[in-house]
Amino acid sequence: MSKEYFVNTLQVGEEFTDYFLVKSPSIKVGSNHKTYFDVTLCDRTGDVNGKKWDVDEVEGANLGLLKDGDIVKIRASVSEWNGIKQLRVARIRKADPGSDGLEMADYIKAAPEDPGEMFDFIWDKAQDIKDEGLKKVCTDALEENKDRLMYYPGAMRNHHAEFAGLLYHTKRMLDLGIRACEVYGDLDRDWVICGVIMHDMEKLNELNSNELGVSDGYTVKGNLLGHIVMGTIRMEERAKKAGLSEEKTVMLQHMILAHHYEPEFGSPVRPMFPEAELLHYLDMLDAKMFDFEAALEGVDGGHFSERVRTLDNRMLYKPTFKK
Amino acid sequence: MSKEYFVNTLQVGEEFTDYFLVKSPSIKVGSNHKTYFDVTLCDRTGDVNGKKWDVDEVEGANLGLLKDGDIVKIRASVSEWNGIKQLRVARIRKADPGSDGLEMADYIKAAPEDPGEMFDFIWDKAQDIKDEGLKKVCTDALEENKDRLMYYPGAMRNHHAEFAGLLYHTKRMLDLGIRACEVYGDLDRDWVICGVIMHDMEKLNELNSNELGVSDGYTVKGNLLGHIVMGTIRMEERAKKAGLSEEKTVMLQHMILAHHYEPEFGSPVRPMFPEAELLHYLDMLDAKMFDFEAALEGVDGGHFSERVRTLDNRMLYKPTFKK
Amino acid sequence: MSKEYFVNTLQVGEEFTDYFLVKSPSIKVGSNHKTYFDVTLCDRTGDVNGKKWDVDEVEGANLGLLKDGDIVKIRASVSEWNGIKQLRVARIRKADPGSDGLEMADYIKAAPEDPGEMFDFIWDKAQDIKDEGLKKVCTDALEENKDRLMYYPGAMRNHHAEFAGLLYHTKRMLDLGIRACEVYGDLDRDWVICGVIMHDMEKLNELNSNELGVSDGYTVKGNLLGHIVMGTIRMEERAKKAGLSEEKTVMLQHMILAHHYEPEFGSPVRPMFPEAELLHYLDMLDAKMFDFEAALEGVDGGHFSERVRTLDNRMLYKPTFKK
Amino acid sequence: MSKEYFVNTLQVGEEFTDYFLVKSPSIKVGSNHKTYFDVTLCDRTGDVNGKKWDVDEVEGANLGLLKDGDIVKIRASVSEWNGIKQLRVARIRKADPGSDGLEMADYIKAAPEDPGEMFDFIWDKAQDIKDEGLKKVCTDALEENKDRLMYYPGAMRNHHAEFAGLLYHTKRMLDLGIRACEVYGDLDRDWVICGVIMHDMEKLNELNSNELGVSDGYTVKGNLLGHIVMGTIRMEERAKKAGLSEEKTVMLQHMILAHHYEPEFGSPVRPMFPEAELLHYLDMLDAKMFDFEAALEGVDGGHFSERVRTLDNRMLYKPTFKK
Amino acid sequence: MSKEYFVNTLQVGEEFTDYFLVKSPSIKVGSNHKTYFDVTLCDRTGDVNGKKWDVDEVEGANLGLLKDGDIVKIRASVSEWNGIKQLRVARIRKADPGSDGLEMADYIKAAPEDPGEMFDFIWDKAQDIKDEGLKKVCTDALEENKDRLMYYPGAMRNHHAEFAGLLYHTKRMLDLGIRACEVYGDLDRDWVICGVIMHDMEKLNELNSNELGVSDGYTVKGNLLGHIVMGTIRMEERAKKAGLSEEKTVMLQHMILAHHYEPEFGSPVRPMFPEAELLHYLDMLDAKMFDFEAALEGVDGGHFSERVRTLDNRMLYKPTFKK
Amino acid sequence: MSKEYFVNTLQVGEEFTDYFLVKSPSIKVGSNHKTYFDVTLCDRTGDVNGKKWDVDEVEGANLGLLKDGDIVKIRASVSEWNGIKQLRVARIRKADPGSDGLEMADYIKAAPEDPGEMFDFIWDKAQDIKDEGLKKVCTDALEENKDRLMYYPGAMRNHHAEFAGLLYHTKRMLDLGIRACEVYGDLDRDWVICGVIMHDMEKLNELNSNELGVSDGYTVKGNLLGHIVMGTIRMEERAKKAGLSEEKTVMLQHMILAHHYEPEFGSPVRPMFPEAELLHYLDMLDAKMFDFEAALEGVDGGHFSERVRTLDNRMLYKPTFKK
Q1: Res C82: pLDDT
Q2: Is the ipTM of this structure higher than 0.95?
Q3: Mind telling me how many Å the CA of B48 is from chain D's nearest CA?
């Protein structure tokens, strides 16, 4: 069944029946000492808090079985509290995506391109690398991690925190990076491609993620070392396996290590050759473009967005002549 | 006559005769109370200090006539003082570039592309703009300033401080900016083109420059307002003439105003729409690529450059496998 | 009828009937699913939240008609919640300031001096300017904006966010600025007067304001450019009309541009002549004095104020010997 | 004899005979192994390096007796080295200011007002204080330090580093402070007067100074504690003697402690009442006005000064219409 | 009676009867217009909010008599709200610690060592000082303040905000400081001991504290001057009484003044001799160790703590092999 | 032969004959076109510039053979230039330390303890470690690097830039670290010992050093990665070899990674368990103590040192009562 009501277009007062994905479900007791069910209801356009009041013991037991990632069918009405929408849920039951004929893509925030096609794009560029060692480093890493790349997000929150977000981030950086080599002739295309493909690879081990691309946090290693240093450590072994010289090994490690540029964002050294410098700007620009797109989505022409914390607290403007 | 000895390849001990461009010539008295002639000798590869010792009154009078931008023919030998090369000048006379058959391009640091071709590239992109108002803003400004754009440097020192450096900077940013529109579909190509073309246009009135693209300083207006605010002020009148709406006028002014991004680098506001954000990164990246190229020129493979002040004091690395 | 109960002296437990100005009125639904009316009630001494519980449909329809700036007559009692006072409203009706014989000055926070007199003070000082061009710039701007200056606030929040606050700010700066010229003989009085009068003039176009001097936000232009740059742009045309030389035009633009001094507060250049430097300190000092007065109002002798965000989070002290 | 040649108007090539004050005299051996005499020659307009070449043993012994603060009569010619003027001294002898009929004021940089009159101005304002305790604090301190105040500089370098500079700084701050009380009615005049008079009093014990108002450095106590904390400590005893209450004592200590405002400039707390806040701005403004006057002195109209380190490295502008 | 239920081990759902210490008791009116009693209930392991609903007038009058530091006996059940535990109180009465046989140590957060023993440790080290003046300074201060040192906390919040926390902080610093003298032979043990003992002594006058070591805020003097400057002022008189030379007096004042090292943390000067430098690091390290211990208490092996504001917002890790 | 004249006690005017170590020898041509020999002459107390004038071709050829680290015997006199001492060398010849019976310790700046004894101290502490894995990591690293540890400096410049400086730094940190475990009972001694021993081990591969403990720069790897990240990478393999669990491996890597604490000093993460925090403070304190000792050496009692760049530009004070 095709979904009709999406989070970002719900109207106050509206009553409806539709499917949503469940996040953080819990049974609570209100200040009036009655039990209610509290849940975040999500689809690909966002999420909204929902409450089912006056839950009795039997229902409570059932609702207590719901968990993160389940799909539910609800009947609800839309109210507003301090300018924030909320769903008053009248009926709720667990759905079976299969038998209910649901399209999972409707329920999770996902990169706008097909993971398989993005992976192929990246794979093809890796095959283009002329330096055999660099090519093997990329090929090995892509093969090893292909399964998880198909769904891993690029972050827990913030930019590219979405299904296949890491792949999408890598793909767009690669796309622009190769074009930059056409403008700036001193750049070595092999190093740009390899640097882009490898720069965030250890996010796969820094973050946890379920197969919907939702991360609930960092690994112990992720907290104690961070993906930048993890990638630098891991490269030692990858480079050895690919037969890279010590100089090239250190240069690849340097690219990973320096790609956040600022010490306070995790890079203990700053880029020392042009491809490493470019890598930083590709990374920055892709993050910014992602954040701009996200923040301006749903803003009306002639108006400003809310302030965006990850963009130095800026409000963004959508001109009147933009649809 | 074609120049043979260039500043960046002079060898200590070598004696030679060749032409150089004159900068900061002056007659001085040494600690031994004798008069000598002190001058900076330049060509497109750099500059070196030269001294002619024991100048008598007649010669002093002649040398006193030399001025910035003259070409001289000298006979000299190369010595070294504290690791810095210096020329001991034995003979010196003013040359006439025309009758001596000199190629001026040998004597000044210049952008590596032909000014006419760069201008045409930019002009063509301006003609591509679909919004008639934006197109007229660009076309008017390019026509008005064509003569000076053919030689103006992009700065007094630092990146793009060279003949036609401003044009080269604009051209490469435009080249990458248009490619970025192919990767990031939300970007409006018209605004990217117009933003890039106009962003530094008032450098023409912030800096002084002779026709060799050498700037000896800032104008009064340049010091008191700076090219960013000057460009914003000037846009008021340009936009009116081009019939732009108030919204579009303000948006163009915002792009100019925000393109340095950081307040401490002269932008009182940060970019508030994606094209303004991109403009900043194009500007940064082109400056960085310029500085990397310049700093690594002449560095041997496997070695580091000197520390570069404009690159946060980094030393840059040239790998052994780079020629 | 003269107002008796003011926000800053309401006592918990007290029951009363009086008039207040309405801000942000809205009908809401509580967690008990009942409808109530929520409103901010203001007078010149401050504001307090009010709630009328259990609003039925008929009354809700009436209350739904109230809007920002209306005056209401209420019967209410004062309660306290987490140390913050709140009004439980028993009765409420819209008042007619005219027929109820109300003094509007009781209902809005206003500068403590009469707008007309402040305007005259400023106007007189402008007439004192000896340089004809500078005088015309001031005279023209004052004439053009007289109507709005009579009520415009100096800010949306923070210092001088009050009826005629912009005028009050300008007047006190002018008063001290002229005295400073008596102490510092090198200062040119003409430039001090003109700089002070013009420095914030474009706040009139950066902020929205109703005629009560209450601003609900920034204009699009205000957000994208800010009043400092707007004032600099606008000066181009004003100066031309007044026949100012280019040097004087640029100097006036510089004064406006530099008056916030710090880049991160919006000034891309720092003051480069003494009158511009003085202007900055006059502006700072007046803002600080305003904030100190406001923060210490109502503090008892021997106690500290709350922390004041705009004063670097300081608590201020009122000595025991101050009344 | 009245001085004719002043440091700030010496012309290259000029030969002359006149008197100068001696600073840092020393006998040195040149790279040609000959002995020469090196000295800084000063008058109230600035200082210039002088060298007497080829000094023999007898003359060396004589010159070796010269010390800081002596006046010498020299015959010299003006040369220039790297754009910096230098005197080639032909003859030099120690002068006797008395018998040579010299005006000491020609030889030292001094505040432009008479110390006695400045002291009287300050004394009179102290007598105006209505609070008997505060008045006694000021009166005692002025009496105790009158002798040294007549010549003490306000700093070792930077603003008010001149004969009676501390007095001049205090006097001008007081002059403006009292006027500020007329504009800002909430300010308590007594506290403003007392705060200004006492704020820098311990500079007398932080800095060394000879009777020409030239400081050669800090005292041990000055280095280990600084005048701000020294003034705060000293106030404990002064206040006790004047019979001030503990509250008033602590408030005076707070004013001294907070007057630099920023922690990194030595104030561990920021001002917490309005008179302390004003004190900071009076201090800042007077320092700035001093630096502007000094930096613009000698700059031609339509030109910029050198960059001034103490003014955040700004160049200052003198307009063409300023004489 | 020995306490059984401690705040840090209460289980949601659990019902129990036990004693707690009262903080911030107050009678409030809920959104349902009913009266309830709101209180913070504390023991040595932490605190938890408690509410007794539907309080009638008689009970309200009784509860209104409770005050900070009282012990109550309650019957309550544990609920949870947004992940924060809360007690629903069914019965509550004031207890008498004496007749109920309570151990006060169960109710207040206290340093883990006995105050008397800590004081003796410090006293003994003071007797070890060889310089008679320094010894007298310490001995006098310890004698004068012994009573309050037995319970004073080291802070209002943050590290060492506990019964006898100031003593505990001083004792551990002293213990490590003396050991550091064994490693770094250049350090003068006398100065290390005296510096540690005196560095925070004026916290006794900067903070208020009841005899349970709970501080409810700063004194006026504490706010206007701070304990660092207060300690420096006070040392003037102490040193005079102990017959210290001016140099030693200033050095002791410097140690106190510099011990926070950074201007923004209250030190207007940085340490200028080795013992002053060591003092700073002893202070830092002891604060950090305290915060680490506190933050990791109760964290399970293999998990991270919450982010700790006073530790630059770090999460801390407890390894799986730690119990 | 035992050295008599040391750099730090040479007197201007003195003539002497003695041995020195050679650094940066070179043949130069003066402004008088004559050849001279320029050299830095060093012993354990410092270094001084020396010049031998008027070198003829034969002697030039001989002097041209001298290289860094050679010992020469010179006859020279001490002159001064701008307050800096210089040696006028009259005679110079290469010495043979062996046959001339020289004590090398007189010629190089060296840690004040015997390398062998320091190594043994560290080795013994490593044997104390109870965790077999951690012990093996330390033992392996110490064995592998014993030869180089006997002479490696701790830095190129700044603290511990001396013969065996790295060992001395490690030894003193270890000494204090173990004592700290006696004061702070929560610390795990094994981790403190292992962390200290391993924290700077990769300085051996970041810096070059000759066997005199003089470093002439960084390795390519040292520049591109730095010793902190190099140590983190290297630990991967060491830990594997020692059979450490993944958790312990990551924790050791974290200790190395975090030990500089501040991102801008090279640590991308901050310490997350107490032993890592302690490690940072041990490192800081040892560096500071080293710098204080070095800066105060040779300062007279009652005076201040020069400003020390590595100590935030502080001047340090040596009291009059210190010898």
Answers
A1: 55
A2: no
A3: 17
